[in-house]
Amino acid sequence: MTNKSGQAPVVPGLPKKKFKLMNWVWAIILIGGLFVSTQETNTSLPVLFQNFSNFTEIFVEMAKPDWSYSGTVIPLVLQTIKMAILGTFFGSLAAFFYSLLIARNVVKNKVVTGVFRFIMNIIRTIPDLLLGAIFVAIVGTGTFAGVLALSVFTFGVVVKLFYEAIETIDNGPIEALTAVGANKWQIITDAVLPQVMTYFISYTLYAFEINVRASTVLGYIGAGGIGLYLQQTLDVFQYERTGTIIIIIVIVVVLIDYISSKAREALMK
Amino acid sequence: MEYKQLAPAPKSTAKRIKTWLIVIISLALLIWSFTDMDFGGIKPSAKQIVGSIFNGLLHPDWSYVYTGDGEDLLSALWETICIAFLGTFISAIISLPFAFWAARTKYKHWFTSRLGKIVLAIIRSFPEIVLALMFIKAVGPGAAAGVLALGVHSVGMLAKLFSESIENLDEGANEAVIASGGSKWHVMMFATMPNLMPSLISNTLYRFDVSLRSASVLGLVGAGGIGYPLMTALNYRMWSRVGIILLGIIILVMIVDWISGWIRSKLV
Amino acid sequence: MANANTPMIECKNVSKVYPDGTVGLKDINLTINKGEFVVVVGLSGAGKSTLLRSINRLQDVSGGEILIDGKSITAAKGKELRLIRRDIGMIFQSFNLVKRSSVLRNVLVGRVAYYPTWKTTFNLFSKEDKQKAYEALQQVGLAEKVYNRADELSGGQQQRVAIARVLEQNPKIILADEPTASLDPETSKRIMNDLKMLNEKYGMTVIANLHSVELAKEFGQRVIGIRAGQVVYDGKMSETPESVFTNIYNGGNGKEAADD
Ligand SMILES: Nc1ncnc2c1ncn2[C@@H]1O[C@H](COP(=O)(O)OP(=O)(O)OP(=O)(O)O)[C@@H](O)[C@H]1O
Ligand SMILES: [Mg+2]
């Protein structure tokens, strides 16, 4: 910082910060969005606080569970778990074959993969309960509708994970097998599957965790399982019973989550 | 020349037993799941209904898209977006303190964070629909109940994701602030939050995708959004209406997924 | 300097045992005077980082006492501790910048302990401090990067931002833990020169852990050798024979002793 003329060094002042348009745009979108959506949904905190006692009342009632009711609840919880297992099974099975069809390193035809991926993306958009409502309309109330809904839902969740796993594998073995003249199926069983199997199992377990959660409410719209009683007890204000159901659901879900995620960790080690 | 005999692949018996045990247990669970399932009671009309739904999807009720009276598809979808947006925002705010509670860091006892994780697991497992019904009792039926239900329920997942980001945080920047005499709050403001921001935004956007799907079903119990008109259309067997609503949901979710994916890719 | 022999850092019987039983430091007694430029050498795992991180209490010691300018940092708590730390700048091997913040904001971090919390929260740094930060950046030759994000800079530039941060902090002591370990020789020199400038121009006491014997010889006035958590050598650089380095590195691994 010496200058040639030998005068005292001139220290330049801090320049003005550059104006970052995009930051402002995002801020405006966020604030505008909050304002508009608060208006649109009529969400108002004062109203919530005024009526908060209604909310806590239910909570307090639920916190006094009616344990005599658990005899009724547990068989239905088991049924719910069965639905989740079946849904996971069928959904993953279908996703398994489907993912081979849309992995670009297995099927080279861009049109085929493109079309099937589009269908997959459509299926993925439909939420679990909507699938439940649709299948109830189709096959009537009961566990079958639930299993169908969960199968399609599982398919949507895992198929994407599956094919992405396939596409990230090491291509060496595929090329090696292609070079020795192996057919598609041999390539799949000898080069692809050994590399992705642990991932597939892990994703299936993950889907199972989601399904257990989803299956507990399917009954609410008539698609089988414990959700039915959730609706019935809430409708007649038997909150102690609702509380019993919820506590049992929470325990089961947390337990299954814990076991399954530990299993996944062990698997990926 | 003599060749050695190929020895069998080395494999520990313990490991083999374990693998087989897992396979057998899984199969047993699967078979057990098939028991007592009534797959017989399919309505005879099922085939015809599937036909009608597909027919409805192919011939959607375009007139329902926009009627101008606020009872149309676009208004319902718009309401759904708003529920998801506000609900996600609320849950992101609530999630922050929960995330710091549940994150396992060297600054606090492991028991504290374990407790936080359990609380989050319970929130996650508390059925969203029940939460919506409880809020309906508090603020009346409608979108607001949906917003609140989403806002609370999403905390379970979002705070978990947040806390994982906190656990993976680079400690170095924190140390630099501490070393220059900063307080815990300074560490938070100058190192932790700026480093955390991208993953907070990314996780929140991801959660918005999920919330949008939730918002479109909360209507099934009267908590606003597109779910209610869909339920009505299904009940009254207005298949072309069902068709246009499904189309609407699919397109909306796809567009939002695409936008949020795009923003998230910009973040890193 | 008038009072060149005032002690700046005093370690009295300092020891550190990690929770897992590893001995980090064993009965360290050291006095470092104001204005000294000390280099600490020793094998990897000898305890150099542990020593530095104990001095500003990024880690607690298990025994003994450390005085900073006469005040005990090992006994200080809360605000008092933070005020002592304000007088100790630190340079890290991995720079430890907030990657996603601007260079300016990173430099201003050096100033946080001078403000009440609420002011820093709303980013209400004074104009003078912002200007000072800018001047610090000019001193390390990074003025034009002031509004860039820290992660857009190269490693050497990031370390210079860290030096500007210390300049902004204006401490009495600088602890530098292998400040050049991840940089190329040319850049390393430049960083060491910056540290030398802080030492000579502002009279800051510098303690630097160095792996490179060459850099240690060039910049250090005093050498402290550490092995297995103990001080095994302490003396003026000019009076230190080559054998000391070979001894400390126990034959060494060639690379470190090599000079050209
Ligand atoms: N957090 C910790 N927990 C347990 N042991 C530790 C911890 N940090 C350091 N150690 C141990 O303390 C000893 C001294 O480590 P330290 O980091 O001070 O060495 P160093 O001289 O800085 O080495 P390097 O040149 O590799 O940086 C080593 O044996 C190290 O394994
Ligand atoms: Mg070290």
Automatic annotation (TrEMBL), chain A:
<dbReference type="InterPro" id="IPR000515">
    <property type="entry name" value="MetI-like"/>
</dbReference>
<keyword id="KW-0472">Membrane</keyword>
<dbReference type="GO" id="GO:0005886">
    <property type="term" value="C:plasma membrane"/>
</dbReference>
<dbReference type="GO" id="GO:0015416">
    <property type="term" value="F:ABC-type phosphonate transporter activity"/>
</dbReference>
<feature type="transmembrane region" description="Helical">
    <location>
        <begin position="210"/>
        <end position="230"/>
    </location>
</feature>
<dbReference type="InterPro" id="IPR035906">
    <property type="entry name" value="MetI-like_sf"/>
</dbReference>
<keyword id="KW-0813">Transport</keyword>
<dbReference type="Pfam" id="PF00528">
    <property type="entry name" value="BPD_transp_1"/>
</dbReference>
<feature type="transmembrane region" description="Helical">
    <location>
        <begin position="21"/>
        <end position="38"/>
    </location>
</feature>
<comment type="similarity">
    <text>Belongs to the binding-protein-dependent transport system permease family.</text>
</comment>
<keyword id="KW-1003">Cell membrane</keyword>
<dbReference type="InterPro" id="IPR005769">
    <property type="entry name" value="PhnE/PtxC"/>
</dbReference>
<feature type="transmembrane region" description="Helical">
    <location>
        <begin position="83"/>
        <end position="103"/>
    </location>
</feature>
<protein>
    <submittedName>
        <fullName>Phosphonate ABC transporter permease protein</fullName>
    </submittedName>
</protein>
<feature type="transmembrane region" description="Helical">
    <location>
        <begin position="242"/>
        <end position="260"/>
    </location>
</feature>
TrEMBL record, chain B:
<comment type="similarity">
    <text>Belongs to the binding-protein-dependent transport system permease family.</text>
</comment>
<keyword id="KW-0812">Transmembrane</keyword>
<dbReference type="InterPro" id="IPR035906">
    <property type="entry name" value="MetI-like_sf"/>
</dbReference>
<dbReference type="InterPro" id="IPR005769">
    <property type="entry name" value="PhnE/PtxC"/>
</dbReference>
<feature type="transmembrane region" description="Helical">
    <location>
        <begin position="210"/>
        <end position="230"/>
    </location>
</feature>
<dbReference type="GO" id="GO:0005886">
    <property type="term" value="C:plasma membrane"/>
</dbReference>
<feature type="transmembrane region" description="Helical">
    <location>
        <begin position="20"/>
        <end position="35"/>
    </location>
</feature>
<protein>
    <submittedName>
        <fullName>Phosphonate ABC transporter permease protein</fullName>
    </submittedName>
</protein>
<dbReference type="GO" id="GO:0030313">
    <property type="term" value="C:cell envelope"/>
</dbReference>
<feature type="transmembrane region" description="Helical">
    <location>
        <begin position="76"/>
        <end position="103"/>
    </location>
</feature>
<keyword id="KW-0813">Transport</keyword>
<keyword id="KW-0472">Membrane</keyword>
<feature type="domain" description="ABC transmembrane type-1">
    <location>
        <begin position="77"/>
        <end position="260"/>
    </location>
</feature>
<dbReference type="GO" id="GO:0015416">
    <property type="term" value="F:ABC-type phosphonate transporter activity"/>
</dbReference>
<feature type="transmembrane region" description="Helical">
    <location>
        <begin position="242"/>
        <end position="263"/>
    </location>
</feature>
TrEMBL record, chain C:
<dbReference type="GO" id="GO:0005524">
    <property type="term" value="F:ATP binding"/>
</dbReference>
<dbReference type="InterPro" id="IPR027417">
    <property type="entry name" value="P-loop_NTPase"/>
</dbReference>
<feature type="domain" description="ABC transporter">
    <location>
        <begin position="9"/>
        <end position="253"/>
    </location>
</feature>
<keyword id="KW-1278">Translocase</keyword>
<dbReference type="GO" id="GO:0016020">
    <property type="term" value="C:membrane"/>
</dbReference>
<keyword id="KW-0547">Nucleotide-binding</keyword>
<keyword id="KW-1003">Cell membrane</keyword>
<keyword id="KW-0067">ATP-binding</keyword>
<dbReference type="InterPro" id="IPR012693">
    <property type="entry name" value="ABC_transpr_PhnC"/>
</dbReference>
<keyword id="KW-0813">Transport</keyword>
<dbReference type="InterPro" id="IPR003439">
    <property type="entry name" value="ABC_transporter-like_ATP-bd"/>
</dbReference>
<dbReference type="GO" id="GO:0016887">
    <property type="term" value="F:ATP hydrolysis activity"/>
</dbReference>
<dbReference type="InterPro" id="IPR050086">
    <property type="entry name" value="MetN_ABC_transporter-like"/>
</dbReference>
<keyword id="KW-0918">Phosphonate transport</keyword>
<dbReference type="GO" id="GO:0015416">
    <property type="term" value="F:ABC-type phosphonate transporter activity"/>
</dbReference>
